[in-house]
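Our consortium's second objective concerns turning raw sequence data into structural hypotheses that experimental partners can test. To show how far this objective has progressed, the report includes one record in full. It was chosen at random from the queue rather than selected for favorable results. The single chain below, 186 residues long, was entered without modification.
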Amino acid sequence: MGAYGIGPHELSGGPDWINSERFMIAAKADQPIDDDGALMVMLQNLLAERFKLVIHRETRTMQAFVLEVGKNGPKLEKAEGGPAETHTSSGKGNVSIDARNMDLPAFAQRLARDMELPVVNQTGLPGIYNFKLRWTPENSKALTDGTAEWPSIFTAIQEQLGLRLHAQKAPVEVLVIDHVEKPSEN
């Protein structure tokens, strides 16, 4: 999922073991690389070579969360440019995302990792932004024991970013696994 920038609900197919088996991948580039996109392409190539991974992408209409501009307009800080950085933390049942130089399609992809459905960007907002988002997930222990410090994701998106997140059927690009093999021991 990380190599292709997708959430868990944007992956289809493959054998059962891909959900339970874990593998340690240790790799070293010939020279230092500070481009995340280039690193992900290298990781995709490694997966194709080592796991014989063959995939294709297709668009499916499915239940998803749609990200739109809220009725009072966006509350996003325009970024000056530079490398994209995202820091995510969770503690006490809460989640925070601090992002710099991130566009909204990338934000939707990042958000999908924490949601039970894919997230589709339909804001139509171009450019890159800096923002902080703080929320308490609905399945959090903090909600059940009454210690929730932050609002739900839906309220947080609206209040903190001026955006709206709601469920509806939408076209979602899905990564379909056509073939994958367990690698042999090194």
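The partners drew two points from this record. Strands lie at 11-13, 54-69, 77-78, 85-91, 94-102, 119-121, 129-135, 163-179. DSSP finds four helices and eight strands in the chain. Both points have been shared with the crystallography group to help prioritize constructs.
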